[in-house]
Design brief:
Strand content: under 5%
Radius of gyration: 21 Å
Order of helices and strands: HHHHHH
Shape: elongated
Distance between the termini: 50 Å
Number of strands: 0
Structural class: mainly alpha
Number of helices: 6
Length: about 160
Amino acid sequence: MTKRTLIAIGIVALIAVATVPFVYAQAGRMHGACGFGHGGGFPMLAHLGHLKSELALSDQQVDQIKSIAQDFHQQNAQYHAQLHGGLKAAAQALIKNPNDIAGAQALLDQQTAAENAMKSNALAAASKALNVLTADQRTKLGQIMQDHMDHMAQQR
């Protein structure tokens, strides 16, 4: 092998190794952005105890929201595995054959479809959960969320 070929192989290997953490970081960012994680995969449940008192939720409302969150979590369980496996498979495909961009892209396209399905499920679950609340409770929740976003923006 020539010196030029060895350098090229080294650069490609370095790029492949360097991209893997970014690929996984992107999955984590998407994961967090959609609110999957705390509270059984439904962001509102992470603070449900706090919201129960602040919104004056009845026990029935809490039970309904918990049920919606459980259904949402079960719907998205298959997609969670697909997201993690899809990124790993795309990285492995490129490591195995750096020229197989089409194959890696197909794997990423599958991941995008899974992400979109999860987002659609999140919208449907949020809609169901918000329909459990009264109009006054939704207004209070909107203000709580706005205050939280304002607080987060000030911390940046």
